[in-house]
Amino acid sequence: MQASGTKSLPSVGFLTVVEDQEHGLFGGYLVVNVLSRPLEFHCTTPVRANRAQEILYGATLKPYLFGEQIGQTLLGKAKSKPLLVCTDCEPAMSVRGFVSTPVVLVPSGEPSQPPGDGTNWRVDSPTQGPPAPKIPLVRFALGDQQVALESAYDRDRDAILANVAPKLKGLDFLEPFERIREAIDEAKKGG
């Protein structure tokens, strides 16, 4: 899906992965302008690791599936070049190693909730296999929203705060993820 007439405004990408017990993992990527109007939407067909992959990838399976397989595919399909990519699932952050756009993790808690013990940083994962290794995160405020990025890409924080944050005032960082999940549910119904 592509919308026309709104491409001149800066845009933000939202990437999430939804687990379906029957079919596997579905990835969704929504690019919106700063008014939260959709510019593009892409989703994957179901992705499921086979037993050999579960054994061989071990704890690195989730970042591989979420970031490299799903995230890299979806971001590669997009025509829009967003200022920032937001994800609400930690393993998808591994996509940052394959794109030049900064990637931040958005907690699923309240937008104004401070980082720390009360913040729910969502970590989706297939039901089998060892847990993914914890990614060292650097947390910071992006407007009223707490976000985090991988400490390996800490230099992105300064660029985000200087060049991106002023353009995103008033953008809801949680609502687009709900749109993606609903669109994936509709796509599943349609076959």
Describe the fold and architecture.
The chain is α/β, with parallel strands linked by helices. The chain has one domain (11-186). Helix content is 26%, strand content 24%. It contains four helices and seven strands. Strands 3-2-1-4-5 form a five-stranded mixed beta sheet, sandwiched between helices. A hairpin with a 3-residue loop joins β1 and β2 (24-33). The chain is globular, with a radius of gyration of 16 Å.
Topology:
Blueprint: E1 11-20, E2 24-33, E3 38-43, H1 51-57, H2 61-77, E4 84-87, E5 103-105, E6 137-142, E7 145-150, H3 155-164, H4 175-189
Parallel strand pairs: 1-4, 4-5
Antiparallel strand pairs: 1-2, 2-3, 6-7
Could you report the average pLDDT, rounded to the nearest whole number? 86
Number of domains: 1
Question: What would the principal axes of the Cα set say about the shape?
Answer: globular
The count of β-strands is 7
What are the segments in which pLDDT stays under 50 over at least 5 consecutive residues? 110-127
Strand order of the largest sheet: 3-2-1-4-5
End-to-end C-alpha gap: 17 Å
Helix content: 25-40%
**Main beta sheet, described?**
5 strands, mixed
What's the helix-strand series? EEEHHEEEEHH
Which class do the helix and strand fractions yield? alpha/beta
The radius of gyration computed from the alpha-carbon positions, rounded to a whole number of angstroms, is 16 Å
Percent of sequence in beta strands: 15-25%
Q: Given the structure, what is the number of helices?
A: 4
